[in-house]
Amino acid sequence: MDKTIEQIKEDALKELEAASGPESIKALSVCYLGRKGLVTQFLRSISSLPQEKRADAGKKANEVKKLLDTAFKKALKQLEAESAVSDDRIDVSLPGRVVKRGSLHPITQITQEICDIFSRLGFDIAEGPEVETDYYNFEALNIPKNHPARDMQDTFYISKNIVLRTHTSPTQPRIMEKRKPPLRVIAPGKVYRCDSDLTHTPMFQQVEGFLVDKKSSFGDLKGILTTFIHKIFDDQTRLRFRPSFFPFTEPSAEIDIGCVMCRGKGCRVCSQTGWLEIIGAGMVHPALFENVGYDTKLYTGFAFGMGIERIAMLKYGIDDIRKFYENDLRFLKQF
Amino acid sequence: MKVSLSWLKDYIPIKMDAEDLAEALTMAGLEVEAVSDRYNYLDTVVVGRVVEVNPHPNANKLKLCSVDIGGQTIPVVCGAPNTKKDMLAPCALPGTCFPNGIILEQSNIRGEVSKGMLCSPVELGLGISGSGIMELKQNLAVGDKLHHALGLSDTVFEIDLTPNRPDCLSIIGTAREIAAFQKTKVSYPEINVSEPLAEPLAESPDTAGDISNFSSVTIIDPDLCPRYSARLVFDIKIEPSPFWLQDRLVSVGLKPINNIVDITNFVMMETGQPLHAFDFDRLAENRIVVRAAEEGEQFTTLDQKERILSTGMLLICDGEKPVALAGVMGGMNSEIEDSTTRILLESAYFDPICIRKTSKKTGLATDASHRFERGTDLGGTVKALNRAVQLISEICGGKIIHGIIDEYPKPAPERIITLSVDASNRRLGTSLSQDEIEQYLKSIEFAVEKIDDDKLRVVPPSFRVDINRFEDLTEEIARLYGYNNIETTFPLIPAEARPPSKKIELRNRIKQLMTCLGFTEAINYSFINKLSCDRLELKADDPKRLMMDVLNPISEDQATMRISLIPGLLETMQYNISVQNRNLKLFEIGNVFFHTGQKDSLPDEVEILSGLWTGARVDAYWGSKEISCDFYDLKGAVEELLRNLGIINTTFTAIEPDACCYTKPGYSARIIVDDSLIGLLGEIHPLVLRNYDLKQKAYVFELDFDKLIGIVPDIKLAKPIPKFPATSRDITLIVDKDIEAMNILKMVEILNENLVENLHLFDVYEGSPIPAGKKSISLRITYRSAFETLEDEMINSLHKDITGRLIKEFDAILPA
Ligand SMILES: [Zn+2]
Q1: Chain B residue closest in CA terms to A116
Q2: What ipTM was predicted for this assembly?
Q3: CATH of the structural domain B502-711, one choice from 1.10.10.10, 3.40.50.1440, 3.40.50.1390, 3.30.930.10
Q4: Residue B288 and residue B277: Cα distance in Å, rounded?
Q5: Which CATH architecture has domain A106-332?
Q6: What is the pTM of this model?
C-alpha cells in the first residue's frame, strides 16, 4: 500500500493517454479496475486504515473508480467508432438510384396559377359543360343566328343546336341563371374551334372571369386585370387597353401586354409591334342580363376571357401550341 | 381591309407619320395588322443605263443590251423598239415580283443569258400605256432603287375590322375615325351631277325625259330589301379606266376591270356602299323587280356557276327572269360587256341576315356581301349612286338620265337614345362633364341635344348601325376619351374565404398525388377517331358505340367525342414510343361524353381519371438491369392513391372474360369501394395493342372521378397510437391455385377482428415441391390488443385456431 489514490489516478490517466488500441485500454481497465486491479486493491486496503480515515479514503477511492471507469469506456467507444471507418471507398460519382416524380401538364400548372391569383382576389372557381347548346354558347351571349360575329369563332357542330363550346363564356349565363349578384367567378376549361396551325389547336383552354355587382366600372375591370397581369407575369409588365368587339360586352376591350420576349422592342412573337394580345374583356352587355333576368338598372358587371396556352407559351417560351397536346414525355418532363 | 395613305389624304389631311397613325387607329378600335409600302415590290428594280445595244445573234426582234446597274454591268435581252444606247430605264433584277404576279428569274433567251429586264410602265404597274421601255430622266442616279429615285411611296394599312363596324369598311369611314382623334374635319367629295333636262330634246330623243319614262323598280319583299335606288346612264363606252382610277384600286388590292366596274368598286371603297351595274339593254322590259327566290330556282352567277337557290334568298329580276343574286353577285345574263352602251346602276340596302344566309349557303363571299351582311348605310344609297354617276359622266362620257328611282318602302326607324352623363361616368369609372361627352359624340357625327343637366338626346348617324342603346354610347365615349386614360380602380370586395369546391380541390389533390407516384400528366384531345371503338374491340352492341359525332371534324382522327380516355393514352404511348420514349407512366383527368340516345340533346359528361404504365418498373442502372412493370405495379399505385385519399375499403375482383374487351382476360380487375364499382384495372388486350401498332405490354386503370368525389371522406380522424406491444406469427398454407389471396386475408380478419391488427402477405409460390395446381401462400399475422399485453399462450391458441379454420375453409394443407 504505497501509492496514494491520487497517484493511482494520475498514473492511470497518463497510461490511458498513451494507450494505442482497444486492447491496451481493456488491459488498463483490468489493471486498475479489475478484481486484482490497483483501485480495487486500494479499496480493499481501506479496512486496514484507522477508523477515522476510512470514510474519507473510501469516498475518494470510489470517486476515482468512477472517474476512471468513465474515462476508459469513453476512450474505448471513441476507438471503436474510429475503427468502423476503414480505407474502403465508394464511387460517389456514380448516379444515384432513380426516384422519379411525375409532372403536371404545363397547362394545368398555369391554370392553377391563374385560379390561385383570382381566388386571392375573392373569386369563386366554377366549371361548365364542354358540349353546349347553341343557346348558351351564342344566343344567351347576344350572338344571334346569322350574325357575322359567329364568324369570329369557327364552330364544331354536333347537331343543329349542339356545339362544342367555342369559349368559356357560356359559363356566364349558366351561373347567372342559378345565382344572384353579387357574383365573382372564374371558370377555366376546354374549348373547341375548327382551326389547326402553329398558333391554333382544335382544342384549347380558356379562363373566363366575371364580376357582377351594384357598382362596378370599366375602371374596376382595369384594376383587376392589371393586378392579374402583374402577378402572372411580373409587375414591370406594361398593359394597354384598346377598343374591340365582343357581342356580350359593351364597351369591349382587348388587353395587350408589352411583349415579354423582347420587352417591347419588337420581335417575331409580337409581329414587331412590341405588344401581345392577351385578354378579351368588357362591361357585361345588358342583353346578357336581360336573358338571365337581372335588373339592368340595378346591376353592372365586367367579364374577361383569356387563352391559357397563350400565357403558357409566353411564360415558358414555347412557339408551337401543338406541343401541348402531343404529350411528348421529353416536353412534359420539363415542367 | 386595305387602306392606302394616298387615298385617305383625298379626304383628310394627315400630319402624323404612318407608324403613329397605325397606332392611333388601333387604339381607336380599328386594329392595324400590318403596315407596308405598296411600292416595296420595286425594291429589286434599279435605275439602269443602257451602255451597249447589239443585235441578238439568234433572234431578229430581240436586242442584246449591256446595262450598267451601278457598279456592275449585266447582259439583258430586250425586245422593245425604243431601247437605245445611253438611255436610263428601270431594270428589274431576278427575284422581282411584278404586279401581275410573275417573278423574274435569270434566264437564257435563245442562247443568250439575260440577268435582268428593262421594263415598261405597264409591267411595273406605274402606267397603262405604251409597249416601250419606260424612259427615265437623265439626272437620276444609276443603281438607285426605282421607288427611291422616283419618290414613289404609299403606305398601306391592313385593318382587321370587328364585325360591328361596317361603317369603317371604306376609305371615308376610316377618314371619319381619323378625323375624330385628330380633331380635324373630313372633306367629303363634292357631288355635282349635271342632269339633262326632263323635257324631250329634239336633237337627242333617246336620252331625254325622266327616268320613269325608261324604267321602274318594284320591290315585292320590302323586308329583305327596304331600299332600292337606281339611275340610268346612256351612251357610255366600255374602256379601261384611266391610270389614276386603276392606281387607286390597285392601292387597296382590287383588280381593275373596265371603267364601269372600276367606278362601282371605287365608290364602294370610297363610301362603303356596294353598287351594281346592269346592261340596261339586257334587262327584259327594261325594269327591275326585287323578290325572294323560290326553292330550287336556278341561276347562273357572274362566275359562270349554276346556283340552286332556296327560299330566303333575294333576287334582282328584270321583267322576266333573275338577273342578280341580290347583294352577293350579278348574273351572267345582265353583265356589262364591251359592247354595252346603256347601264342601270343599282344602289340598294339589303337585309343583312338574308345576305349572310345567301352567302353562307352558296359559299359566295364577295366584297359586296361582306358589307351588306354587316349592315350598310340605309341613308346613304342615293349619295353613293350620285357619286358613281358623276364619275361615269366624267370618265366614260355617258349621258345621265334625269331623275332617280328611289324605292324606300321601309324607312329606318329613328334611333333616339337618352344618355345619362352620370350613368355613363359610373359605368366607365370616369368623371366627364356633359359638355365633354357632347363634344366627343359630335366629333363622330352624332346629333346631340341637351335634355337637362344630366341627360343628352343622341341620334347616331345612319351609317352607325352598331349603336342602339345607352351602353353602345358609353363605348364611343370611352373610345374617344381613350381606354388608357380611364383611371384604374378596384372593386370593393368583401373579405370572404372562398374555398374551391370539393370537386376542384379533389382533382388538384389527385393530380398532385399521381405525380408523386411517378405519373406524368397528359392532356389529349377530347375527340377521337370513330374507329376507336373497333380498336378497343368493343362489342357490336356496346352502348358506348353510340357516340357524339362532330358534323364538321378537322380530320378522321378527331371525328367523334371520346367515350374513354384509353384511346388517347394509347395514342400518346404510340407517339412516345415512336420518338423512343419507351418507359411511360402517364395519367389524365378529363371528360368523356356519352350519348343520351336522344337527338339534339347534350351528352352525359363524365369525368374520368385514367393511368397507363408501360416499360420499366425500375429503369436500368449500373447496379441492375431494367425490370419491367406489371399488373401489381399499377395496382400498387392505385391502392396508394386511394389510401391517400382516405378510401380504405377498396377491393379488386377478377373480371370474367369478355366483360371488358380492351383488357386481357385473366389480367383485369374491377375496383370496388364499399360494394360500388368505381373503376377498372388491367393489362391491355394483345388485340388492342396490335390495333394501335404497339408491341410492348401496357397496363391501364380507369376511375370514375365523379364517383370518387362521393366516397372520399371529408374528415380524417386520428387513431390512438397502440400502448401495448404487438406479436406476430407466420403461417404458410398450400391451397388451390385459383383461390384468390384476398379471400384468405378477408377470412382472417373476419375470424378475429379485435386482435388481428395487420396482415402481411409475404410470399406466394408455385412450383416444386408444391404439387401442380396448388400454390403456397405465406402470411404474417400481427396480433395486438388495445387493452393488454397478449400472453404467448393466448396468441398461440388464437393462431392455432385461425390456422385450423383456414385449413378447413380453403381446403388447405400445411407444408411438410
Ligand atoms: Zn416581341
Answers
A1: B500
A2: 0.87
A3: 3.30.930.10
A4: 12
A5: 2-Layer Sandwich (3.30)
A6: 0.86
